[in-house]
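Hello Y.,

Per our agreement to keep a running log of every chain we model this quarter, I'm adding this entry. I've kept the format consistent with earlier entries: sequence first, then predicted structure.
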Amino acid sequence: MNKHFGFLLLLCICALPGCWNAEEKAAIAKLKPTKDPILEEIYAFRLKMRALYNNRRFAELEQAAAELRRTKPVFDNGSWKIVQFYESFGCRAEEPESMWQLHDRIHQDWIAQFPLSITARVAYADFFTDYAWHARGSGFADKVTKEGWQLFGERLELARKTLAEARELTDKDPFWWLVALGVALGQHWPKNEYDQLLEEAKAFEPKFWGYDMARARSLLPRWYGEPGDWEAYAEQVARRPDGLGAEVYARIVMDMRGYYDNIFRETNASWPTVRQGLIEMRQKYPRSFDLLNQTALLSSLGGDRDLAKEAFGKLGDNYLPSAWGKPERFVRSRKWAETGVR
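Predicted structure for the entry above:
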C-alpha cells in the first residue's frame, strides 16, 4: 500500500463518528461535576428560611424580610436575597394536593398572626400564582382541561386580590411587583397596563433585574410580543441611566437562551453587548462559578473563540451541570474553542 494513501486512509477513519465518539467519551469521563459555592450559599439560605416557614416562626421571617428590604443585599452572583427569601417557600409541582393545602394553611396562619404584614401577603400572593400554574400545567393551551382553566383563573384572581390588599399597607416590597407582573401575564392584562406596571416597578427599584427577565419573557410571541421585541427591550433597558447597562442585557439573554438552540443565530441578540455584560459581571462577582460557565457557553454560541478559550482554560475539567445540561455539550464546545472545529 502506498504510504501516502495509508496516511490519508487513517485520517479518514479517525474522522468517522466512531472515532470522535470514543474521544468524546474519554473527555466526558474526565469531567468533574462541580458545585458553585455561591449557589450553595443560596441553597443554605433558602433552607434556613424554609425551616422558619415550616415551623411557623413568622416573627423571625418578618424580621429577616424587613432587614432584606432595608439593606437590599445580593449574593455574590448578583441574585437579590429578597427574591431567594420568597422563593424558599415554594411548593414543588410534583407535590400532592394535600401539600399545597398545607401551604395554604401556613400562609393563612402567617397573615392571622401579622395582619399588617407586607411580607405575609406578598408570600401568599406568590403561592396563589404558583398554585394557579399547578392547576393549569405547563403544556400548550389546547392541552389544558376545562377544570384546569377554571382553577387557573380563580387562583390568579386570589393572587391579584391579595396583592391589592398588600398595596394598601405602609411598607413596600420589590417582590410585590415581580408577583404582580406574573399575575398580569397570566390574566392577559392589556399590554399598556402591563407596561405601566413595569414602569412603576422600575421606578421603585431600577436595578432589580428580575423585572426585566419577566418583561423579556412576556415579549415572546406566545404572549405580548412579536419576533425581535424582547431583544429591542433588552437594548432599551440596557440604555437606562439608572440601570445595570450591559449586565442586564446579558442577564436577559442568559434567561432567554433556553428557548432557542442558538440564541445568537435565531434572534437579534447582540453578542458584543452580552460579551461586555459577562465581563462586567465576572469582575463584579469573581467567585461565581456559574458566571464562568455561562461565559464559556455563551461565547461558544456567539462564535467568540478567544473568550471561550479563556473561560474553558479556567474551567479545565470542572463544569457546572445545571449550566450545560449534558456533559457532551461542554466537551464539544470546549473542543471548538481549542480547535475551531464544530
